[in-house]
């Protein structure tokens, strides 16, 4: 497997085709692809500003989406690659979320630690009449989640 840079458009198309429960991300700071031995794209990861505003401190990056075609260790390779790129860019912390019923094995293999269990909540647009048309019926509303993180010590 080989890590490769990709565009947001490529990542979005891959997620639209292969992700089992999330829509493609809207934006990103960067995206990473993973190619198999035959050169075909077998996984993608997108990273951007944290969605939760209290984590958006300028030095925390959120992995908004990973998606693979199921190859062994592909997700771990993507998480590790995003963290290496984030550190090189000066980020000191990287977070992501999984659904509570997902094991997190790929995250643990990449060095992430489980931080917090989050109870189910309504979708971000659930209470807004104006945003009714933007509601994502297949999104994470009503699903318990887990917050994961990896960080490095700040020098100085």
Automatic annotation (TrEMBL):
Lineage top rank: taxon: Bacteria
InterPro entries linked: Gp66-like
Alphabetical list of NCBIfam families matching this protein: XF1762_fam
Protein name: N-acetyltransferase
Organism (species): Atlantibacter subterraneus
């Amino acid at each position: 497997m080989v890590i490769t840079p990709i565009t947001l458009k490529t990542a979005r198309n891959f997620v639209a085709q292969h992700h089992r429960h999330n829509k493609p991300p809207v934006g990103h700071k960067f995206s990473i692809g993973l190619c198999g031995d035959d050169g075909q794209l077998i996984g993608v990861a997108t990273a951007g500003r944290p969605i939760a505003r209290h984590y958006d401190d300028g030095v925390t990056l959120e992995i908004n989406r990973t998606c693979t075609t199921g190859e062994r260790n592909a997700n771990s390779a993507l998480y590790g690659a995003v963290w290496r790129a984030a550190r090189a860019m000066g980020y000191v912390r990287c977070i992501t979320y999984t659904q509570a019923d997902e094991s997190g094995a790929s995250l643990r293999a990449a060095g992430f630690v489980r931080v917090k269990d989050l109870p189910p909540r309504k979708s971000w647009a659930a209470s807004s009449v104006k945003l009714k048309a933007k509601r994502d019926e297949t999104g994470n509303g009503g699903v318990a989640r887990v917050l994961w993180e990896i960080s490095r010590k700040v020098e100085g």
